[in-house]
């Protein structure tokens, strides 16, 4: 392994897709987007485009071994992503090499993510029928396998799952049979959300969800997700966090796939869209609408939290709500100060008044609400609270970045509040809280905050815009962590979704 602060070296062992959307081409772009140094050993060459695969050439398995040795004899490999492997000879050669490097490296061995590629999005087969058993032998040398729904059925020797619960059950038995983590992916199911979950023999460890996007351009999504997962894991050492980061990045890449014009079939995702924002002219569409779309995965994650679901139906334990309110009270005090700082830095009187007014009403209205419920018991700040506040304070010398960092607290609360308000009624145990964040006044102030940040963005140069987006995205992740911090979402709390780690700064801008 390389030393802690160096860029991580990620090796893709996969097939080549000359149209650039899947295989090693997708892997290298995904690894770069996720902040790693990408390397690629080619296991097979395909002749394919967005419409389908017309030919496959598999070099001798010994030549794959020569590539793997050349890399591993010289370069510290931090993580490996494995994709298309074509046939049993290639798989067994790879298995031998993997066993060797894993034994030699011991606890420093690179993490291995295996995407068991069998069929392309176009429907073409990419793996010999006899090779499936060889693939099963390879599981002994990997940490995570990432089958899609049809691949899960083949590997689990069962029917193709028709719903998410069946997919999770199949993934769990596969995890138990081979003692690996299985990333079950819901892309091939129907419904408004695409769910993915990391599953161990004991059940779901972590689940993410994002809105299902209406696009035909999903060629290479599996390749891209597994490469980003391996890279984020190499960087952070936490599978749940890596999945959340990979999913957030991929959701944006899919959301912006239609900005590319590649082929007439299933086109690629827009791997580097976020990077290009800083160096290409801003897209004609509203950038803040795009920001909002790009954090769809994070927003869906908030909606899925036990805390939010129970707050909505009123079944949230009073102790959990109090824990949350205590942290919220601490947070709001500092949040008001950071807004005062924004007021100080604001270039126009109108913006100065907006932030000063928001700081004052934040202290007056929300603190009344908190004090009414909490009396004077204010707890110590949690890790999630501290991380969020540190992030806000880190931007407090740069007005555009600060304005962008402050926005999710308005926007996400208003958005979540709207959905919570639907369930409100006079006897609801948290009626006053639900009412505050779904009021017309809060809608108005949120709309003004969005408009203000849109104006700051319009005046900013490319690198400032990229920094604003990063600050906005990081605050959104902190929002998720903040909502996820009560016992309702603690690991093992019971209803499947949970185990969210605190304080992530997403590196993708
Ligand atoms: N239309 C879509 N909208 C949003 N996310 C999608 C869509 N299709 C696939 N995904 C996501 O892409 C990733 C790959 O999933 P999937 O399509 O199931 O695997 P594969 O590409 O291996 O067939 C998953 O995170 C899935 O949720
Ligand atoms: C070389 C190669 N590897 C993998 C895939 C699968 O692509 P998808 O991620 O769309 O299932 C592909 N079409 N080509």
TrEMBL record:
EC assignment: 2.7.1.49, 2.7.4.7
Pathway, per record: Cofactor biosynthesis; thiamine diphosphate biosynthesis; 4-amino-2-methyl-5-diphosphomethylpyrimidine from 5-amino-1-(5-phospho-D-ribosyl)imidazole: step 3/3
Pfam families assigned to the protein according to its UniProt record, in alphabetical order: Phos_pyr_kin (PF08543), TENA_THI-4 (PF03070)
Domain Pyridoxamine kinase/Phosphomethylpyrimidine kinase: 17-270
Domain Thiaminase-2/PQQC: 307-486
Keyword line: Kinase, Thiamine biosynthesis, Transferase
UniProt entry tagged with the keyword Kinase: yes
Catalytic function, reaction form: 4-amino-2-methyl-5-(phosphooxymethyl)pyrimidine + ATP = 4-amino-2-methyl-5-(diphosphooxymethyl)pyrimidine + ADP; 4-amino-5-hydroxymethyl-2-methylpyrimidine + ATP = 4-amino-2-methyl-5-(phosphooxymethyl)pyrimidine + ADP + H(+)
Enzyme superclass (EC): transferase
GO molecular function: hydroxymethylpyrimidine kinase activity; phosphomethylpyrimidine kinase activity
Gene3D superfamilies: 3.40.1190.20, Heme oxygenase-like (1.20.910.10)
Purpose of the protein: Catalyzes the phosphorylation of hydroxymethylpyrimidine phosphate (HMP-P) to HMP-PP, and of HMP to HMP-P.
NCBIfam families: HMP-P_kinase
Protein name: Hydroxymethylpyrimidine/phosphomethylpyrimidine kinase
């Amino acid at each position: 392994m390389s030393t802690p602060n160096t860029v991580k070296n990620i090796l893709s062992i996969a097939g080549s897709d000359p149209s650039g959307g899947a295989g090693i081409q997708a892997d290298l772009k995904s690894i770069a987007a996720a902040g790693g140094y990408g390397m690629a050993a080619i296991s097979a060459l395909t002749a394919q485009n967005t419409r389908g695969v017309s030919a496959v050439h598999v070099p001798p398995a010994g030549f794959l071994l020569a590539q793997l040795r050349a890399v591993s004899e010289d370069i510290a490999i931090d993580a490996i992503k494995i994709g298309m492997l074509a046939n049993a000879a290639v798989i067994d050669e790879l298995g031998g090499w993997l066993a060797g490097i894993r034994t030699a490296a011991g606890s420093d061995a690179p993490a291995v993510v295996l995407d068991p590629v069998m069929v392309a999005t176009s429907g073409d087969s990419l793996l010999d029928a006899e090779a499936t058993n060889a693939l099963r032998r390879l599981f002994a040398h990997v940490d995570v396998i990432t089958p899609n729904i049809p691949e899960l059925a083949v590997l689990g020797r069962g029917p193709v799952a028709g719903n998410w619960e069946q997919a999770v059950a199949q993934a769990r038995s596969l995890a138990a049979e081979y003692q690996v983590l299985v990333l079950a992916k819901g892309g091939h199911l129907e419904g408004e959300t695409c769910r993915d979950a990391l599953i161990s023999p004991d059940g779901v460890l972590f689940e993410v969800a994002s809105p299902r996007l209406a696009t035909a351009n999903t060629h290479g999504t599996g390749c891209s997700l597994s490469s980003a997962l391996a890279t984020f894991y190499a960087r952070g050492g936490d599978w749940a966090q890596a999945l959340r980061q990979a999913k957030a990045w991929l959701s944006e890449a899919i959301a912006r796939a239609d900005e590319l014009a590649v082929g007439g079939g299933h086109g690629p995702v827009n791997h580097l869209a976020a990077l290009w924002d800083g160096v290409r002219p801003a897209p004609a569409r509203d950038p803040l609408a795009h920001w909002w779309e790009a954090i769809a995965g994070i927003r869906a994650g908030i909606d899925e939290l036990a805390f939010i679901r129970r707050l909505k139906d009123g079944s949230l334990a009073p102790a959990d709500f109090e824990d949350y309110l205590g942290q919220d009270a601490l947070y709001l005090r500092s949040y008001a100060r950071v807004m005062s700082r924004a007021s100080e830095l604001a270039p126009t009187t109108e913006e100065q008044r907006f932030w000063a007014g928001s700081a004052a009403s934040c202290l007056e209205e929300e603190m009344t609400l908190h004090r009414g419920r909490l009396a004077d018991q204010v707890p110590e700040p949690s890790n999630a609270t501290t991380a969020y506040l540190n992030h806000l304070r880190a931007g407090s010398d740069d007005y555009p970045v600060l304005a962008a960092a402050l926005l999710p607290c308005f926007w996400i609360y208003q958005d979540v509040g709207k959905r919570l308000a639907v369930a409100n009624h006079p006897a609801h145990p948290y009626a006053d809280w639900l009412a505050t964040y779904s009021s017309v006044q809060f809608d108005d102030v949120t709309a003004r905050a969005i408009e203000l940040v849109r104006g700051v963005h319009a005046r900013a140069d490319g690198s400032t815009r990229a920094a604003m987006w990063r600050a906005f995205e990081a605050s959104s992740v902190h929002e998720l962590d903040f909502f996820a911090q009560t016992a309702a979402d603690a690991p093992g709390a019971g209803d499947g979704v949970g185990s969210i780690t605190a304080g992530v700064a997403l590196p993708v801008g």
